[in-house]
Amino acid sequence: MLATSLTAAVLGVEAHLVHVEADSAPGFPRFTMVGLADSAVKESEARIRAALRNCGIPFKWDRRITVNLAPAGLRKYGSSFDLATAVGLLAADGGVSLRHLADVLLLGELALDGAVRPVPGVLPTLLLARRHGLRAAVVPGANHREAAFAPGLPVHPVASLTGALALLAAEELPPPPSPPPPGDGDAPPQADLADVRGQALARRALEIAAAGGHNLLLVGPPGSGKTMLARRLPGILPPLSPDEALETAAIHSAAGLPAEAAVAARPFRSPHHTASDVALVGGGQRPRPGEVSLAHNGVLFLDELAEFRRATLEVLRQPLEEGHVTVSRHRGAFPMPARFQLVAAMNPCPCGRRGSRTAPCSCTPGEVRSYLGRLSGPLLDRIDLHVGLRALDFDEATAPPGETTAAVRSRVAAARERQARRGGGQTLRPWNASLSPAALRRAARPGPDGLHLLRHAVDRLGLSARGLDRVLRVARTIADLDDNEEVRTHHLAEALGYRRCVGDTDTAGEFQEVGEHP
């Protein structure tokens, strides 16, 4: 007999429907699995044999058994096909009557005792089943929580193979149990911005970055507060919208991470500087999301930026500009979302003491040039805010706490609300950092004095056309924080002060003094 069950393969962050065709026929006993299955998929034969035996379910293994995973040209990875394969084999054997194979999606790994173990990628699979109009889905009990992100699709959790068979053999599928809601208590405690002493310019830049979705580079000696500031950015960002939470949860699920973490707090990813380019943008033998996709709708923090390999940093240029990456392999291309805020931190020189008032720098000019030369101009051009930090003196380090995260977050939320109203509700991300050129010209048109200042800045800073656009975007955000519909000269001056502090602090400081905010 021939029977077909439904499951899914997750490649990158997308799920693809897979038909498991099982055929049992007289002949020399042999088990054959085809359809570009990897080793973990082919090993399902041993798991299914043991599970059926230990569950006391009879099966005729003395026949010629063929399992085809269609479409045959799609690579299959992992153990999530076990449940659908076992159910299809039993239906093809004719020993059980299963009424709901044609429109129910099955997902789960089988233990040797017949238990159904959790698998990664359940949420993208549930979204796929909903798009295809399937009647229901059967998932491991441990993955039932992810069903809360896919309302409208009945999801039945099962603990064992026998439970799945009983469910599929019933006259009618019973009402599914309600999934447990995603827990907000899973979020780690947010560090408060009040813990940061001094560094008024860096705090201001952090607020601007949060309000407009801008990328930020912090340059300063060790201990000046770069990492503290970066880790407090998610706390001043607005909470995830329902659409953003679903996007982020699906990516985390595809990567095998807890999907509920996406709604507990905005992602904050901080890969080590030894990370490879594949680890950052994704890919590998089995296409998986990288750090830029795991930071989607959140923050990607690159500490010790100059210690990353230059080739690794250069792969960030496309996602910073376009908000997505496409991993191309010989069997296809896998697009993955990657719209994140980049926050990077680095020392001003190899020893970290360049510009210090207390400890002399021991680096030669050649060593400093080589160190800063690890960052390419095109990459720096895509970072809107460049901020230089200095070491704190005793009075600054022992000063009273500054503004709290809650106070700054309220101003950021108000600025983003102004941007959303100006966007007319026509885009999911109307933030200033993502404005199209046409929208930027309408929203950030400087006056005659502003144009004169920009002309002077282009001559002094050597701004590219992209750099000039990014100055206008930052100025638009500063005006939004000031509750001003017009971009004025002091907004432009402050925005220009945040350009090119790497190796050019004197020129940047010229504009920072002009644009000093109250």
Fold and architecture overview:
The protein has 518 residues and is α/β, with parallel strands linked by helices. It has three domains: 168 residues, Ribosomal Protein S5, domain 2 (2-Layer Sandwich), CATH 3.30.230.10; 210 residues, P-loop containing nucleotide triphosphate hydrolases (Rossmann fold, 3-Layer(aba) Sandwich); 84 residues. The protein is 38% helix and 17% strand. The chain contains 23 helices and 18 strands. A five-stranded parallel beta sheet has the order 11-14-17-10-18. The protein has a four-stranded mixed beta sheet with strand order 1-2-4-3. It has a three-stranded parallel beta sheet with strand order 5-8-9.
List the helices and strands and how they pair.
Blueprint: E1 2-11, E2 14-25, E3 30-34, H1 39-42, H2 44-54, E4 64-70, H3 82-93, E5 104-106, E6 109-110, E7 116-117, H4 122-131, E8 136-140, E9 155-158, H5 161-169, H6 200-212, E10 216-219, H7 226-231, H8 233-236, H9 242-254, H10 261-264, E11 268-269, H11 277-281, E12 282-283, E13 288-289, H12 291-294, E14 299-302, H13 310-314, H14 317-322, E15 324-329, E16 332-337, E17 341-346, H15 365-372, H16 377-381, E18 385-388, H17 394-397, H18 405-423, H19 437-443, H20 448-461, H21 465-481, H22 489-496, H23 505-514
Parallel strand pairs: 3-4, 5-8, 8-9, 10-17, 10-18, 11-14, 14-17
Antiparallel strand pairs: 1-2, 2-4, 6-7, 12-13, 15-16
